[in-house]
């Protein structure tokens, strides 16, 4: 092959990878949009639907709960029936849920519709890591997932700003109309850009016994379970911020909806910066060491949260900076913890992605519920839950590292009795 042909082939490969990553970033971005787009509207929704702040917060917690549990089913279904099935199903359900949210007449209907949105999001988000794992391995998986997470980060970067603008111009229901439109466009984009990546020869029949055996293998593998829980606790801390921040920033500190969007964007910029650095050095350091560096930053952020928890009303700039440290590491933690799990369980990547996602978002839902229960009109519940989640993430990272030192394994786990 001539140098010209080699260069052309390389350029084509880079172009294909770029298209693949951007498409997945758009698809996976629907979930953070569904979470963040309506955050500036939460106080308005409470007034419009005659609901308490705690009840409006439940729209986020129910979304996350319905987002977490169905992943345990959609992941194995993607291993059995292919990635297209789970993606098309998820986008269709998300579309219906978004329309139902826009038409909700009371807080109960909105909560139920948000649950439907969450179920659709579960199928979408659990399929993306499996699609990446079908094409990439180990550090390359972490690199590509890091890029996907960075592309995805654009969604929550602009979501509160767009949501605040839409709230001002058209009301809170228009946010859910926009989500319905984006779901329809994403369905078309996936059909045109992404092919089926799981060959029929590699598919695993969907049998309850096989499903339980595969999940049992994941649970019994202590190191992988620890890294999944590490990511879950870190995500739980971030979701506790998402649940409480509209009321802390807008009501407690008196910032406008637009300024809230700008402050929120600072966290996403921090996440993007950490992700860029992580992607640049992960090939050199490896996923385990990169995860350890992220946990060092998490340790600092957790210590700051503990200090803020003891202060009745800390200065807003200090709060913003401490949250940026905490939230910023989440992309690196998620990508590299999943890389460590997938390195062992590539044969059941859909199921592994499902368990990790279910635990991660289950932790997020639980953190949101705890924040709503502790709501007392101060910032204390948000700091306390974030500190607790950060401590949990650090503990499980250390346990996973200890198990890695004690047990050295080679090769991938293979499912038995298919």
TrEMBL record:
<keyword id="KW-0812">Transmembrane</keyword>
<feature type="transmembrane region" description="Helical">
    <location>
        <begin position="354"/>
        <end position="374"/>
    </location>
</feature>
<feature type="transmembrane region" description="Helical">
    <location>
        <begin position="380"/>
        <end position="399"/>
    </location>
</feature>
<feature type="transmembrane region" description="Helical">
    <location>
        <begin position="51"/>
        <end position="73"/>
    </location>
</feature>
<keyword id="KW-0472">Membrane</keyword>
<comment type="similarity">
    <text>Belongs to the major facilitator superfamily. Bcr/CmlA family.</text>
</comment>
<dbReference type="GO" id="GO:0015385">
    <property type="term" value="F:sodium:proton antiporter activity"/>
</dbReference>
<dbReference type="InterPro" id="IPR004812">
    <property type="entry name" value="Efflux_drug-R_Bcr/CmlA"/>
</dbReference>
<feature type="transmembrane region" description="Helical">
    <location>
        <begin position="318"/>
        <end position="342"/>
    </location>
</feature>
<feature type="transmembrane region" description="Helical">
    <location>
        <begin position="144"/>
        <end position="166"/>
    </location>
</feature>
<dbReference type="InterPro" id="IPR011701">
    <property type="entry name" value="MFS"/>
</dbReference>
<keyword id="KW-1133">Transmembrane helix</keyword>
<dbReference type="GO" id="GO:1990961">
    <property type="term" value="P:xenobiotic detoxification by transmembrane export across the plasma membrane"/>
</dbReference>
<feature type="transmembrane region" description="Helical">
    <location>
        <begin position="225"/>
        <end position="248"/>
    </location>
</feature>
<dbReference type="Pfam" id="PF07690">
    <property type="entry name" value="MFS_1"/>
</dbReference>
<protein>
    <recommendedName>
        <fullName>Bcr/CflA family efflux transporter</fullName>
    </recommendedName>
</protein>
<feature type="transmembrane region" description="Helical">
    <location>
        <begin position="20"/>
        <end position="39"/>
    </location>
</feature>
<keyword id="KW-0997">Cell inner membrane</keyword>
<feature type="transmembrane region" description="Helical">
    <location>
        <begin position="111"/>
        <end position="132"/>
    </location>
</feature>
<dbReference type="InterPro" id="IPR036259">
    <property type="entry name" value="MFS_trans_sf"/>
</dbReference>
<keyword id="KW-0813">Transport</keyword>
<dbReference type="InterPro" id="IPR020846">
    <property type="entry name" value="MFS_dom"/>
</dbReference>
<feature type="transmembrane region" description="Helical">
    <location>
        <begin position="260"/>
        <end position="278"/>
    </location>
</feature>
<feature type="transmembrane region" description="Helical">
    <location>
        <begin position="290"/>
        <end position="312"/>
    </location>
</feature>
<feature type="domain" description="Major facilitator superfamily (MFS) profile">
    <location>
        <begin position="18"/>
        <end position="408"/>
    </location>
</feature>
<dbReference type="GO" id="GO:0042910">
    <property type="term" value="F:xenobiotic transmembrane transporter activity"/>
</dbReference>
<keyword id="KW-1003">Cell membrane</keyword>
<dbReference type="GO" id="GO:0005886">
    <property type="term" value="C:plasma membrane"/>
</dbReference>
<feature type="transmembrane region" description="Helical">
    <location>
        <begin position="172"/>
        <end position="192"/>
    </location>
</feature>
<feature type="transmembrane region" description="Helical">
    <location>
        <begin position="85"/>
        <end position="105"/>
    </location>
</feature>
């Amino acid at each position: 092959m001539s140098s010209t042909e080699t260069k052309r082939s390389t350029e084509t490969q880079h172009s294909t990878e770029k298209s693949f990553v951007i498409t997945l970033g758009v698809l996976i971005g629907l979930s953070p949009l569904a979470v963040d787009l309506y955050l500036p509207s939460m106080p308005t929704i409470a007034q419009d639907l005659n609901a308490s702040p705690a009840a409006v917060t439940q729209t986020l917690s129910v979304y996350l709960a319905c987002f977490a549990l169905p992943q345990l089913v959609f992941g194995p279904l993607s291993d059995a029936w292919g990635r297209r099935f789970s993606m098309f199903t998820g986008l269709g359900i998300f579309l219906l849920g978004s329309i139902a949210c826009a038409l909700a007449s009371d807080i109960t209907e909105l909560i139920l519709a948000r649950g439907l949105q969450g179920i659709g999001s579960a199928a979408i988000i659990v399929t993306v890591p499996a699609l990446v794992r079908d094409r990439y391995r180990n550090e390359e998986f972490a690199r590509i997932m890091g890029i996907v997470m960075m592309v995805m980060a654009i969604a929550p970067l602009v979501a509160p700003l767009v949501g605040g603008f839409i709230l001002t111009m058209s009301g809170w229901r228009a946010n859910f109309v926009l989500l319905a439109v984006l779901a329809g466009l994403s369905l078309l984009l996936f059909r045109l850009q992404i092919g089926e990546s799981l060959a029929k020869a590699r598919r695993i029949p969907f049998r309850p016994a096989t499903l339980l055996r595969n999940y049992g293998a994941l649970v019994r593998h202590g190191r992988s379970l620890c890294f999944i829980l590490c990511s879950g606790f870190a995500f739980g801390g971030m979701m506790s911020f998402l649940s409480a921040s509209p009321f802390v920033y807008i009501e407690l500190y008196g910032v406008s909806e637009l300024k809230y969007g700008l402050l929120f964007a600072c966290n996403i910029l921090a996440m993007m910066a950490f992700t860029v650095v992580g992607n640049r050095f992960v090939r050199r350091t490896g996923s385990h060491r990169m995860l350890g560096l992220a946990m060092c930053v998490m340790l600092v952020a957790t210590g700051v949260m503990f200090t803020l928890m003891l202060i009745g009303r800390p200065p807003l700039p200090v709060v913003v900076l401490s949250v940026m440290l905490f939230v910023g590491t989440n992309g690196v933690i998620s990508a590299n913890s999943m890389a460590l799990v997938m390195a062992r369980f590539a044969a059941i990547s859909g199921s592994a992605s499902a368990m990790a996602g279910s635990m991660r978002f289950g932790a997020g839902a639980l953190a949101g519920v705890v924040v709503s229960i502790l709501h007392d009109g101060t910032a204390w519940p948000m700091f306390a839950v974030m500190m607790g989640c950060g401590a949990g993430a650090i503990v499980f990272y250390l346990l996973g590292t200890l198990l890695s030192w004690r047990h050295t394994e080679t090769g991938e786990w293979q499912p038995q009795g298919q």
